[in-house]
Write a structure and sequence with these properties.
With 524 residues, this protein is of the alpha+beta class. 66% of the residues lie in helices and 6% in strands. It has a 4-stranded antiparallel beta sheet, covered by helices on one side. Strand 4 and strand 5 form a beta hairpin. Helix 3 runs parallel beside helix 5 (104-121), helix 11 (223-239) packs parallel to helix 13 and helix 14 packs antiparallel against helix 15 (299-315). The longest helix is centred in the first third of the chain and has 18 residues, at 104-121. The radius of gyration is 29 Å and the shape is elongated.
Length: 524
């Protein structure tokens, strides 16, 4: 069951998960061929929500504790129709149940959905708190964390903080490893990028991202996103002065959003139509937008519609109606609670916790696919990356220790420093060493810090897993001819000579190597 998300800078888009109700992980994109039962169910929900919703509602109604995925699936459908608040109480009870039973993935998913619902209604502080909770509960690489970051970027955009919003979108992309196989989410992020680019660099900069968003939306049959891309394109045309083209695109987006019952976007397109038209046609479009805003309980939409109607009434010298609409706009904006939001986002500044580019460096290391055959080569790769890692991770110390049996993982406080230790294992699972990260005593290790440390350890372990296991060379030697055995012995002793300290070399390893070479020469 795909769970969508409404979002865009000052407004809302829709994206989300692509996984049927009841499936746990690995949703991914919908394909047009060889559809699995999971993909077929997702397609049914996205393209025939009217058929899927009654089934989900029956399932919810007959259970004292409805399945989480059935609730989330029904919310996805009702949300696009502007009826998400109908399930608010059920979602909050389900969230409390998930937290009680320590079902953290389910709790993160439910919290993220509640964040979307609050955001759609204009309850921005509550949305911020819900998305903050999602990040506390979800692993950084999950879709729920990616969606929560996108939501927080919307809040930054709503405040006009485009720079921070862009950095939060960067984090959403960097943390979600399945993005390349997920056109649904790529479309969502491209739309948000377009919003940011239009505001900061102008309409022309946004158009390529809108084309990406529309193509990815078509790949998953997401007509809502197609409509939203048209709306954004219409706004770009308006900003460029092509008003006739903007009106044509806005009307097309309004028609598609109405047919797909995406009422939030329909109201937004009507407001744009009202802006592009004059006289009675402009008033009618704004009144329709107001009615939709009231129907879906979106105070931000209602405030925008009242503001537009107040402006139109003033242009027609209808001062009484104009004063009424402006008063309504001010009353609604006062209830949005946005005055609290800047401080709250500043308090939650951990969403922008990568000032030195740690994520980009870790991503580059993870994709480097270095090939190594000895611990010396692992050390060479490590020493090359270590200075940049020290700086980007803001560490006072960073060591790779080759310790037989490893070291106990966890956090260690000493008088002068605070350390994180992660055990490193070879391909057989045996502990061969530890990664040690150090900061000043009493330093805070956030969830993001711990996640980055684990990703760094994972990069090292992928290299270590390439090394031959102890005894592997000897075992292989027993199955080959004597000459090949001798050559393999020479190779093993040469490798040991390059990796062993001076004390062991003095004990006779060079002499053994010389004898092995003579034997290999005699055997041909």
């Amino acid at each position: 069951m795909a769970i969508g998300e409404r979002g865009e800078g000052g407004g809302k888009g829709r994206g989300g998960r692509t996984r049927p109700a009841g499936a746990r992980r690995g949703g991914g994109a919908v394909t047009r061929t060889a559809l699995s039962p999971q993909a077929r169910w997702e397609r049914l929900v996205m393209r025939r929500p009217g058929l899927a919703l009654p089934r989900l509602q029956r399932l919810i109604a007959r259970e004292d504790e409805p399945p989480f995925q059935a609730l989330l699936g029904a919310f996805f459908i009702l949300e696009r129709w502007g009826r998400g608040p109908e399930l608010q109480a059920e979602l909050e009870r389900a969230l409390a149940r998930a937290l009680q039973h320590r079902l953290l993935e389910e709790a993160a998913e439910l919290s993220e959905a509640l964040g979307r619902m609050h955001y759609q209604r204009g309850d921005y502080v509550q949305a911020c708190n819900a998305w903050s909770q999602t990040l506390e509960l979800a692993d950084d690489e999950t879709r729920w964390a990616c969606l929560a970051r996108i939501g927080l970027a919307h809040l930054c955009f709503a405040l006009g903080d485009w720079a921070r919003g862009g950095r939060v979108l960067d984090q959403a992309e960097l943390h979600y490893p399945q993005l390349g196989d997920d056109p649904y989410m790529r479309s969502k992020i491209a739309l948000n990028r377009a919003v940011s680019l239009r505001a900061t660099q102008g309409p022309q900069a946004a158009l390529p991202r809108l084309d990406e968003a529309r193509a990815d939306a078509r790949a998953v049959g997401h007509r809502d996103y197609e409509a939203e891309a048209m709306w954004h394109h219409a706004r770009c045309a308006r900003d460029s002065g092509a008003l006739d083209h903007a009106l044509a695109l806005a009307l097309e987006a309004e028609d598609l959003s109405r047919r797909s019952r995406y009422r939030w976007l329909q109201a937004q397109t009507l407001l744009l139509v009202s802006e592009l038209r004059r006289g009675a046609e402009a008033v009618a479009a704004a009144q329709q937008a107001l009615a939709l805003g009231e129907a879906i309980q979106s105070r931000s939409l209602q405030a925008a519609a009242h503001g537009r109607l107040g402006q139109l009434m003033a242009e027609q010298e209808q001062l009484g109606p104009s004063w009424y609409h402006q008063q309504q706009r001010q009353r609604l904006e006062a209830t949005l609670g946005q005055t609290e939001l800047p401080a709250r986002l500043e308090q939650l500044a951990r969403f922008d916790t990568d000032p030195h580019g740690a994520e980009g460096l870790l991503l580059a290391l993870g994709r480097s696919a270095a090939v190594v055959t000895s611990t010396a080569e692992v050390e060479a790769q490590w020493q090359q990356a270590r200075p940049r890692l020290m700086e980007s991770l803001a560490l006072t110390g960073l060591e790779l220790r080759w310790t037989p049996g490893g070291l106990a993982g966890g956090r260690i406080e000493r008088n002068d420093r605070s350390s994180q230790l992660l055990t490193l294992r070879d391909a057989s699972g045996g502990a061969v060493g530890a990664l040690v990260l150090e900061r000043a005593a009493g330093a805070v290790w956030s969830r993001a810090d711990r996640s980055r440390a684990e990703r760094l350890a994972g990069w090292l372990q992928r290299m270590i897993a390439q090394l031959p296991l102890p005894g592997a060379t000897v075992a292989a030697i027993e199955t080959v001819e004597p000459a090949e055995q001798a050559r393999a012995l020479v190779a093993t002793l040469e490798r040991l000579s390059g990796e062993t300290d001076a004390a062991v070399l003095a004990a006779g390893l060079p002499q053994a190597l010389a004898l092995a070479r003579r034997l290999a020469a005699r055997l041909g």
